[in-house]
Amino acid sequence: MILVSLMMKANSKIISIFAVLLIIGLLIPNISFAKNIKDWFNEIRGRSIEHRATESYNQIIRNKQARFCEQLINWTAKIDQIITDRQVRIQERQTERLEKLDQRRENRDTKLEEHREKWEEKWEEHFAKLEDIATTSAQMEALIEFKEAVKEAIASRQAAIDEAISDFRDALDESIINRKTAIEQAKIKYQNAYRVAVQNAQQECANGDNPAQIRDRLRIKLKEIKDEYLSEIKEIEKLDLKPLVDVRQQAFREALDYFKKALKEARDKLKEALGL
Known about the structure:
This protein has one domain (72-274). It has helices at 2-27, 31-133, 137-206, 211-237, 242-274. The chain has 276 residues and is mainly alpha-helical. The protein is 94% helix and 0% strand.
């Protein structure tokens, strides 16, 4: 209201001056003078309109800056919610992976146990056939030693395989836990970087910087932070299982080599006793 009143008073003064000059122009019949007065009045009026437009534009800029700065207060809470939602999705994927992992382990354990039972049945059938061949007490004693040697070799191989599987699973579980920890650390790093960027923008607003420039700089910075975070998460979620698999497979091979060697020694000794 005060601004309007001042503008009305200014216009009133301009009109009064114009009226006085117009009267002078009438008293002094000079067309050129009247035209100059009119041009002068139009110039003053144009400057007044331009001044008001400039003030209006500046006010719009100030309002826009104020709104932008006010909105920044909510940006931190907004990104916290975005990260929380993303973390929930990551956690859901991790839970799903763990459930599938547990299911695969259970299936493999079941198949391994079934395989061992069938293998044991075949060995018992083989032992029974050998008993038909052994006729003397010495041969029967050699057959008993052969059975014990084979069963000991089988038990040793199974123990080595079970240990290799257990070590592999423990190492895998540890890798999964480390990945989860790394993801949490990356999230905290991202949140802190985001907050710092927003706080810097708030400080620039308080300093009276151009809001458009502040917004552009902030968007560029936030994109850099986000891209770095997503890239880090992508790398973290990758699990290089090859070293673990190689160690497990090496243990399997060593167990098999030991079994083959023990079995060959037992067979050679039995063949000699049976005269085969």
